[in-house]
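Entry, Tuesday afternoon. Goal for today is a structural model of the target with 2-acetamido-2-deoxy-beta-D-glucopyranose bound, before we commit to ordering more compound. Inputs were pasted exactly as handed over by J.K., no edits. I checked the ligand SMILES twice against the vendor sheet because last time a stereocentre got dropped in transcription.
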Amino acid sequence: MQSTSLKLLLVVSLGFLQSGDTLRGDVTYYSGWNHGWGSCGLDISMENQFYVLALGMKYMTLPENETNTHNHPLCGPNACAKIYGERGTVVLKISDTCGGCLDDNIDVADTVFPMLDDPIKGVVPMDWEFVDCSVDPPGKKTAKSEFFLDLHLSRKIIYN
Ligand SMILES: *[C@@H]1O[C@H](CO)[C@@H](O)[C@H](O)[C@H]1NC(C)=O
């Protein structure tokens, strides 16, 4: 049941996704995400920590005349976000709405937050951007320095 206006919105939002603007917001985390499918109602087979990302109402407000939160354009299969933490970078599938997140603040899974920063801090401002999941799929991204460290270690193992 996809109306023409929804298709149009999807095209508009994908164009917007490719803009590559770096955003900045407070990143928080939540638990209990594995018991529900979020406002996007993603398929249970997608239910893993990299498919847990809640954006605030700035982004998740429903288009005019749309009543089903599952049909929000940012619930679409290509709508992901890349988050840059002190500890590492992750790409997450947008799947949920964070009612308490103002502006560009976002909420991630409690098991993903430690990949970004120390969870003791609770709330950490980070840079993030919209990315296309078909180009940059959900998961933990290897930082350049980690890659070279891995390479160095594996060379040591091979040559020593
Ligand atoms: C929303 O619904 C109203 C009433 O049916 C209609 O007049 C309006 O054009 C609709 N807006 C969109 C964006 O489809």
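The mean pLDDT is 82.
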